[in-house]
Design brief:
The complex is a heterotrimer of chains A (274), B (233) and C (550). Chain A is built from twelve helices and eight strands. Chain A is an alpha/beta fold. Chain A folds into two domains: 122 residues, Glutathione S-transferase Yfyf (Class Pi), Chain A, domain 2 (Up-down Bundle); 136 residues, Rossmann fold (3-Layer(aba) Sandwich). A four-stranded parallel β-sheet of chain A has the order 2-1-3-4, sandwiched between helices. Chain A starts with a strand and ends with a helix. Chain B has a five-stranded mixed β-sheet, covered by helices on one side. In chain B, helix 4 packs antiparallel against helix 5. The longest helix of chain B has 16 residues. Chain B is flat, with a radius of gyration of 25 Å. In chain B, 45% of the residues are buried. Among the domains of chain C are: 139 residues, Flavocytochrome C3, Chain A, domain 1, CATH 3.90.700.10; 216 residues, FAD/NAD(P)-binding domain (3-Layer(bba) Sandwich), CATH 3.50.50.60. Chain C contains 18 helices and 21 strands. In chain C, helix 2 crosses helix 12, helix 4 runs parallel beside helix 9 and helix 4 runs parallel beside helix 16. The chains are: A alpha/beta (274), B alpha+beta (233), C alpha/beta (550). At the A-B interface, helix 3 of A face helix 4 of B.
């Protein structure tokens, strides 16, 4: 059995449990053991995105150091935001020697870190495994649209391979829709003090998806899910990437009970396959 | 204690920067008393349980500020100290019996929302005199794991130094108290044997036996005691 | 790690290691001392029987009784405060119930007083240090309650009476043992995290002198866990607590009932007058008097203040000739001399071993027997000498992991592991040195089932009270004591609150009368009490003290 070191992030533990449940069970079906990084801490979310305060680097870099101490050469991440934060932190550690000197000194409790843990999104491993394993991907009529949001694709140098989510969904037999607003920002933390902005954005995104014939929206980010579910006026079923894949593979434990949108009858219909 | 300083190895202790020569091998607390302090603050159980004597110190020649308990830490030569007898971090008031209370991280977040400000900087872990994983305990809340918070912070003596060092102004030791109570009350279930025994007592199952034994004379009691069976396996 | 012990001890340590596997197999109940031999052992070796260390008290309700010299010294002493120094007509705090002592007993009393209807603001807890600075917080091994199938509260009663040499008051022991399971359940409802097994049931352990496993514990921080929770509850209810404000004298009505107390602010030195319908004394023990020069497990403030104040107000004491020495106080290194090493270690299989590597006593005798036996072993020359003159017996702690698996010691005794780690000793690798240490006041202010003392208006609960434990307390019964009787005191106070009791004039008449008695007995005027805090300042300082009015 192959093993993947996995960083869940706070969202997958609280609010997006269905994502974590389906990741475990789907990768297990694909013969990959999901090994949670011991003692991981919060990636810090937006804090590390500010450039001028080194203490904010502590949170993501500490996770990389923990991964290193476990002997992990690759650390897989599912939440798009955590993926973005950790990947940028790894690049920071590799390239910003002067600042890393200060970071390392500030957090002197570990040996100096200068990079060495590759951050990958689970979609990359998922596609690889799906292509290797003999899957009965019966072409379905079900039309799904992946929503990339911001942090999976911006900045470009940290983006996942283009159209990777469509590739995964196609491989297991879905018909995929690439709609115009697939990588439009959902409004992010504006939902706290300017929910009107988030409402407008989310409505545009979901309406666009529905107009293109989408039957279910497929996500990879608990933060996006929070906003989309909050303003899901069109009652579009919203599923996690691994839940969508798992339905077709016949995996039973997908944590569907945690989903906040109405997912029936889509899930029932999608799981029917020859 | 040997008062003859020539026979003893002496070390320098700086109390609020005032230098005192004290015999080597004394705890900070004992050394302060040797120097003449009658302690009324920053002293409690003297055994490592109460958190009254958390002391921040720096060794001459070093720059790091460290912390340990004055009742346990042995004076090092050139030690500069201050005892922090109290931390005024805000403890929220709550009713543990309120209907919406449960062993849920959401409860902790509602009373102490500042937990979300944790930037995992590790300053709390660094300063904790009990060497607890305070940061991991706060992260456990963000990960929805109340039990983990309670267990990681179980040995907390509530000195409060963690909250003093926290850039996010998180009162970790107060949050942990609520986490432990929530877990103890709502996370664990009632004990079956205990419930059964309580029922028996209320129903008066032992009333007659009590009457008999309380009426027994000393010799009778002695005989019962001497011949009682030990069931300790 | 081996450097933690002086090299001259290595021979002995090796002997302990060599005998370990054989001792592991042995059934130690064969070492149990027949009950009829207890008395002669105690007579020869227990500190309570060194008659030259005791004296007859010459004044007060227990005049003629024999008590430790250190106690007599405090009882035969003049009130520090002179009546003309204070104006008792100006009342600073007017409450239903004044609770003197912020440990377990006082805290439980406050909670139950409020539970039974007294508004929180009508309760006042006063304490000389902080709320929770008490022996209660330092308890390690557990609280007894007869919950197991093969156990019963009556069995608990029998064990307690036997341990106390049948001098305990039956109605108090009944209350203690019958209400124990209820206390554990109350704690659980408050959120106390008692240790559970893998099935979620509370674990119970054996304690010295107990015939069943009935100790409920929270690692070896049981006292701390309980105290934290009940203290938190007091804070949530908004019950007022005055810290750093010891009571220095009780106040009595012209009829002789207690009607409140005189408090003293440790920082500002001002006094406060409290009037209260009911006064509860929960001032704990007297370990910091270092009876017979013993080190102690007790907290800094354990100086018998409550005894002194109550005695002056006419409260009768009992069993003051009986002092509990915990068999296993730390004996090395010197920095931790006397600190508590919980009996739970012996409950889980730890064995006292002499310097030749021999186990010489059943590890779970009642405390007085166990302590006397360790003292005998040292007097017979089989103890391990420390560099500073104190002797010790090995407590073979590596047995814990040997019996229960690797990591068992760290899980069950994190506070002790931490204590020794600070001094570079790993108790899972090396045995630790122990010797009896001054631990508990077996007797105290005599109370009835309602915690009433012989003085009107004065209740007592917890270690300061007498009659519950007879001549010797069993492990796990003291945290139980403060809960059962703290609760009863709180309930009694609430009942008295319903009655129309008028506290009239507050006086120090009782102190005046006591002063007259002292003068008549020819007691030296320089002797003053209560002590409040022990004197540990260096001699150099004490010789050069100057009282300067700032």
């Amino acid at each position: 059995m192959e093993e993947m070191f996995f960083y869940p992030g706070c969202g997958l533990k609280s609010g997006a449990e269905g994502y974590y449940t389906s990741i475990r069970s789907v990768f297990a079906k694909l013969d990959v053991n999901v090994r949670e990084l011991p003692d991981w801490n919060c990636c810090g979310a937006v804090y590390p995105l500010s450039t001028d305060n080194l203490i904010q680097r502590g949170a993501p870099i500490r996770n990389l150091v923990k991964a290193r101490s476990q002997g992990a050469e690759v650390l897989y991440v599912a939440c798009s935001m955590c993926y973005n934060v950790l990947k940028r932190a790894e690049q920071f550690a590799q390239t910003r020697q002067e600042e890393m000197k200060r970071v390392n000194e500030l957090f002197e409790e570990y040996d100096d870190y200068s990079g060495g843990v590759e951050i990958r999104h689970i979609s990359e491993l998922l596609l690889e495994r799906l292509q290797v394993v003999d899957i009965l991907g019966t072409p379905q009529e079900k039309k799904v649209a992946p929503y990339y949001g911001c942090t999976l694709v911006r900045p470009a140098e940290f983006a996942v391979p283009p159209r990777i989510l469509e590739d995964i969904l196609k491989t297991v037999g879905y018909t995929t829709i690439t709609f115009r607003n697939t990588d439009r920002c959902c409004g992010a933390y504006h939902s706290i003090n300017r929910p009107d902005i988030t409402r407008t954005r989310v409505t545009e995104i979901l309406t666009d998806a529905v107009n293109e014939g989408t039957e279910a929206l497929i996500l990879s980010c608990p933060l996006c899910e929070y906003n989309l579910a909050a303003f899901n006026m069109v009652d579009l079923p919203i599923l996690w990437l691994t839940q969508a894949v798992g339905l077709v593979l016949g995996v039973s434990d997908l944590g569907l009970e945690y989903n906040r949108s109405v997912i029936e009858p889509f899930t029932r219909e999608a799981s029917h396959h020859e | 204690m040997n008062e003859n300083e020539q026979d003893q190895q002496m070390v320098w202790l700086f109390v609020l920067d005032r230098p005192y020569k004290v015999p080597a091998g004394l705890t900070i607390q004992d050394a302060m008393e040797y120097a003449g302090y009658k302690l009324t603050r920053g002293v409690g159980c003297r055994g490592g349980f109460c958190g009254a004597c958390a002391t921040v110190y720096r060794i001459e020649g070093q720059y790091q500020l460290k912390a340990d308990l004055a009742c346990q830490k042995v004076v090092e030569d050139g030690m500069h100290i201050v005892t922090i007898p109290f931390t005024p971090a805000n403890k929220k008031q709550y009713d543990i019996d309120a209907p919406d209370m449960k062993a849920d991280a959401g409860i902790l977040l509602s009373y102490y929302p500042m937990v979300a400000r944790c930037v995992s900087c590790n300053r709390c872990n660094n300063i904790c005199p009990q060497e607890l994983e305070v940061m991991e305990a706060m992260n456990a809340i963000l990960q929805g794991d109340v039990e983990r918070t309670a267990r990681l912070m179980f040995d907390c003596i509530q000195c409060g130094l963690c909250s003093m060092r926290c850039p996010g102004e998180i009162p970790q030791f107060h949050i942990a108290q609520l986490a432990r109570r929530l877990w103890g009350k709502y996370g664990e279930s009632p004990d079956q044997m205990l419930t059964k025994r309580l029922g028996e007592i209320t129903a008066g199952k032992f009333d007659e036996e009590y009457d008999t034994i309380m009426g027994a004379g000393r010799e009778e009691l002695q005989a019962m005691y001497d011949t009682r069976e030990l069931k300790l396996a | 790690m081996a450097e933690a012990y002086p090299s001259y001890m290595s021979d002995s340590i090796r002997k302990v290691e060599a005998s370990r596997s054989q001792r592991l197999q042995r059934d130690l109940t064969e070492l149990k001392m027949p009950e009829e031999e207890h008395d002669s052992l105690l007579n020869r070796y227990h500190p309570d029987y060194r008659t030259e260390q005791f004296a007859e008290v010459r004044v007060g309700p227990n005049k003629g009784d024999v008590m430790p010299r250190e106690i007599v010294k405090l009882l035969e002493a003049y009130p520090t405060v002179r009546p003309e120094e204070v104006n008792l007509d100006e009342i600073d705090y007017d409450v239903e119930v004044l609770i003197i002592g912020g440990g377990g007993g006082g805290t439980v009393a406050a909670l139950w007083a409020v539970e039974q209807g007294i508004p929180p603001e009508k309760v006042l807890i006063v304490t000389k240090l902080r709320h929770g600075d008490a022996n209660s917080l330092m308890a390690q091994g557990g609280t007894q309650a007869a919950t197991a199938e093969e156990d019963s509260p009556v069995q608990h009663y029998l064990d307690t009476m036997g341990g106390g040499h049948f001098e305990n008051k039956p109605e108090l022991v009944k209350a203690l043992t019958e209400e124990a399971p209820m206390i554990i359940e109350w704690h659980r409802e408050l959120g106390v995290m008692y240790d559970r097994d893998e099935n979620g049931n509370m674990m119970v352990f054996p304690g010295g002198g107990s015939s069943r496993k009935r100790l409920h514990c929270a690692e070896d921080y049981t006292g701390m866990e309980q105290m934290r929770v009940i203290r938190d509850q007091v804070r949530n209810l908004g019950i007022p607590v005055l810290e750093f404000t010891p009571a220095i004298e009780l106040l009595t009505t012209p009829e002789g009932a207690v009607g409140g107390a005189l408090l003293w602010n440790l920082d500002t030195h001002q006094y406060y007058v409290v009037r209260a319908k009911t006064t509860i004394l929960s001032t704990g023990g007297f370990g910091r008097l270092h009876i017979q020069g013993f080190p102690t497990t007790n907290h800094y403030g354990a100086t018998a203040d409550g005894l002194v104040m109550a005695y002056r107000a006419g409260a009768k004491l009992r069993d003051m000739d009986s002092v509990q020495y915990h068999p296993t106080g730390a004996a090395y290194p010197q920095q931790i001399l006397g600190l508590l090493i919980t009996e739970k270690i012996r409950g889980l299989g730890g064995q006292p071993v002499n310097k030749e590597g021999e186990v010489f006593v059943f590890p779970l005798e009642p405390r007085d027997v166990e302590a006397a036996r360790l003292i005998k072993e040292c007097e017979d020359g089989k103890g391990m000498e420390t560099p500073y003159g104190v002797q010790g017996i090995w407590l073979d702690t590596p047995l814990i992991d040997a019996i229960h698996g690797e990591g068992a010691f760290a899980r069950a005794f994190p506070s002790i592991a931490r204590l020794y780690k600070r001094h570079d000793i790993d108790p899972t690798e090396f045995p630790i040195l122990v010797y009896p240490t001054l631990h508990y006041q077996n007797g105290g202010i005599e109370i009835n089932g309602n915690t009433e003392s012989s003085t009107q208006g004065l209740l007592a609960a917890g270690e300061v009270s007498g009659g519950v434990h007879g001549k010797n307390r069993l492990m796990g019964n003291s945290t139980l004591d403060y809960n059962v009787f703290g609760r009863r005191a709180g309930i009694q106070a609430a009942e008295r609150a319903q009655e129309s009791i008028e506290v009239g004039e507050l006086t120090l008449d009782h102190a005046r009368r006591y002063t007259a008695d002292l003068e008549q007995a020819g007691i030296d005027k320089s002797k003053k009490s209560p002590l409040i805090l022990p004197e540990y300042r260096g001699k150099r300082t004490l010789n050069r003290l100057l009282d300067f009015p700032l």
